[in-house]
Hints:
Elements: H1 3-13, H2 19-52, H3 56-92, H4 96-124, H5 128-131, H6 136-150, H7 153-168, H8 173-193, E1 196-202, E2 205-212, H9 216-241, H10 258-289, H11 294-330, H12 334-368, H13 374-387, H14 391-406, H15 411-462
Antiparallel strand pairs: 1-2
Helix pairs in contact: 1-2, 2-8, 2-11, 3-4, 3-6, 3-7, 3-10, 3-11, 4-6, 4-7, 6-9, 7-8, 7-9, 8-9, 10-15, 11-12, 11-13, 11-14, 12-13, 12-14, 13-15, 14-15
Amino acid sequence: MAVSDTLLAKIRGGEQITTAEKLNLIVQLSIPSMLAQVTTVLMFYIDASMVGSLGANPSAAIGLVEPVTWLFASLSSACSMGFSVQVAHFIGANDFEKARAVMRHGYIFGLAISFALMILAAAVAFPLPGWLKGGTDIQHDASLYFLIFSFAIPFVLLEQLSASMLKVSGDVRRPSFIAVLMCVLDVTFNFFFIFPTRTIEVFGIQIEVFGLNLGVKGAALGTASSFAVGALPLIYFAIFRSKILAWKLDKERFVWMWSYIRNAVKIGAPMAVQQMLMNGAQVVSTMIVAPLGNISIAAHSFAITAESLCYMPGYGIGEAATTLVGQSMGAQRRELCYSFSHMTVFIGMGVMALMGVVMYAFAPEMIGRLSPVEEIRELGTAILRIEAFAEPFFAASIVIYCVFVGAGNTIRPSIINLGSMWLVRLTLAAILAPTYGLRGVWFAMAIELTFRGILFLISLFRGSWMKNLQKE
């Protein structure tokens, strides 16, 4: 049995856990997720550089609809979390049979939701770039990219649902490995799908490489194909190989329980509404950036990709926080909830503060890898350096949000996120963009992330999110 499995069993068994064991558990659950998150971003970084080599217009076409692709992926994630949080609580209470029952409901209900999202996304694919005020020179490519992505939504949900189920059960290694594999496949598919047949030189040898020359469409097909391939082994691991969640462990016949659906909606609905409005805010932000021109659109998109290298470790630590707080809540361990929440938050802030320093120092190289266009490089470097100062507080908002999700409290963090985004970031961006251009938009973003992080820290320290737990 792995050390992490032993320590998680201590949580469920009511045993005392030392500070060193807590730190060990956080590290063991965080590291695989952090590596997977960083590898994912690195691969998207390479993905973006592949498209960037085609010029500013293809990059702008993808950047224009990218926030809306995040919206649909986030809605799938909200659906997944509605079930996985319940699974974490049942596992913490040592009720593995109910955990598996919730998991079955998640697959059935989740697939139904994913097909509805797929139909909706396909229906809006062609008018969408016009709604976002993209130029006519990029609208066609943007529509095709989004249309191809829409058909991958069921696979996106299956991948997210299976991965989240495994993670809350304590198995972070398999989903992390598959995340890395998906990224490698994405780059491989793009290598053949985006570019034409060409001759490349490897160790002084000329090799002819086949290519479909699909450009932006090839990037979309590569991403969709990687999700489809990655979802299948995750489903297999979750349903057949998990020590806790494998369906073969069930002794009783499956019975449909609407209470699990209602609980999932109670947990997931605030997250879904938040994601809709947060990504809606990203869309509005794109609409603020779009009139600044294709150079600004491309620099904005590339800088977001580059910045992801800094905040993905925060999400990795946040995933560990969700698992640890979720199982501690299920086990009714108030002291552990408090301890794990504070330790994960401060570790996340420290890691992302360091990453902020790295981002500031290497901003020219990070953007330079993504585009050969000098104007994009110069603008992207400037806005990344603005954002670097906000990274520690961005970490606080990421990890504390995950803590609250693990506790099943999704309303308050959703309100904080929405209020901060709509009232602070977008207001400031709309005011600053006409005068300061894209730099003004990112200055508004840095101020808002700092403000949001402070609000989350205040909410964490007040401790009311643990009100359903009795003092030990």
